[in-house]
What does this fold into?
Amino acid sequence: MPNAAVKACSNCLVHAPEMAERYGNTPYMERLSHPGSEFLAALPKAGQSYEEACRYAPNLTFIGALSVDGLPARPQPWLRNLEPEAVRDGRFGEIMPEDEFLGLMDFCDVFDLIWLSLDFAAGVKGKLKARNFWSPEQLARLEKGRPLAEIEAECREQHALPLYFGGRVVGCCRRGHETDENLSAHVLLENIASKATSILAMMHLLRNSGLPPGEIDFVVECSEEAIGDMNQRGGGNLAKAVAEIAGCRNASGFDVRAFCAGPTAALITAASMVAAGARKNVVVVAGGAVPKLYMNARDHVKKGLPALENVLGSMAVLLTEDDGESPVIRLDSLGKHTVGAGASPQAVTTALAWEPLEKLGLKLTDVDKYAPELHNPEVTVPAGAGNVPEANYKMIAALGVMKKQLERGDIEGFVKERGLTGFAPTQGHIPSGVPYMGHALEEMKAGRLKRIMVIGKGSLFLGRLTNLADGASFLMEKMAGGAGQAAAVTTRDVEEVVLEALGDLAAALNR
Amino acid sequence: MDLANQQRVKDAAEKFGADNVIVILGSSDAEGAGIYAETVTAGDPTFAGPLAGVALNLPVYHVFEDVVRAEADAGEWENQISMMEMVLDPAALAQAVREMREEHGQSVL
It folds into this structure.
């Protein structure tokens, strides 16, 4: 069966503490209900600074400045043992500061929704240009800005939301309609932030792959935002909006939504299109989620810990036709959580980890590394959600015990050998296992890793339409001998058999 | 405990009466289980949800407590829950909920 090659990956972070403080859902709701609370008063000083974010080991692992195997060896807790040097750029992407991000949002905006002040726009344009990363066409999209008084009036009189940097207003996000709540400034701020972070990941992906933007022929976007107006609130195609600003003139696209399992579902969708020959070079991309910024900050502040959730995450993966050399996404056995599978952890783990391996005659120990929900435990443990990836590994190992592939005493060793330390920001779909693909790609190319399983899980109950569990999984592996060659031989074999049969038939008819 | 679940527990207690409701928790984290148990007995300690300042004093158990297990079908327990017994720390989870129940709730099993 043909597969799709994983050609390149990117992972990026945007440090956005001021956006987190005002528009992350937890502080935003707190400001509405308890504007004078101790939590809100403590929050500004609790967040990591940009320099600290660039010295924080899980962040450096995410962008590929630190190896995923090296993370557990770094002194812990990481939040109290920052790395000696701040690193902005890693092999997969960067950690962008908030002022540049506001500039990026401005040049991603095509409806004059983002206004920046004159001096701020000028300063940030210089910073973006100095990066030598953005194209002249992209930089030319950054507007010269407006007087601060106009921005303040827009916020005061027209329901625009102020944008901050350094504790002062430097711009605003305007509403897109007078009465449509789907086009309110708040919703549009979230959507433009998602678009902008997607574009950051897309540009790093293009740089990492060496492929010109014009060579991309399809984009599948898989964040958790709904793009649309009151008549079609989830109408979509953020993918095409991202492709436009990234300069992918020959691309079309669409969006895939499946809560936190979205990226896994999108990769299966994209790989299927590539393997079928329907599309050639397909990018799967996901931007960050403003509402999830400072989601668990209440617990972090209460415990005197740094509030770590002030970074937006984004990622992208390039899939191309199987060349027989690159690692592939295997399409001959995919993990699927069916409607009838059940919602217990046991049922979900069986559907996503056990069944796809059983179909191929493989054991749980035939997978070198599992990449499920890769949440950074320093964020989730103080919030009472436990160590999410570790819990996943224990579940897979425990299932192995029940299936008699492992002894009970093997659980700890299985977790250590085949698990990963969580390093992804708690941005819903971002920790979905996919951020490990860049690391895995490098390890597979170096011959140090053969097969991984990427597992995405979604919480469908949040949308109040079903209580079903959900998830999807796939195997990424370096095929022995090259799957592409194997597929070509099979095709030739089939042709020969068919021609031989037709020849026999013709001979029989002539007789 | 998220706000929607607090409301569901509050609604159930009002509709059926506190004497006719038992809360069974499946939380995987002992600290979280303790907070959930506190929420449905003494009230929401974070003062963020519908149970802020509302002491329902409900009987609350963790699914891993022996008295709950004794009520369950053995086959279903094997199919649905036994794997998680290997993954989690059942004794710590049971203790966290038991302590809160004994302090603020009721023991009815």
Observations:
- The beta strands of chain B are 23-25, 60-62.
- Chain B touches chain A at residues 28-29, 31-32, 35, 46, 48, 79-84, 86-87 (CB under 8 Å).
- Chain B has a mean pLDDT of 93.
- Chain B has one domain: 3-104.
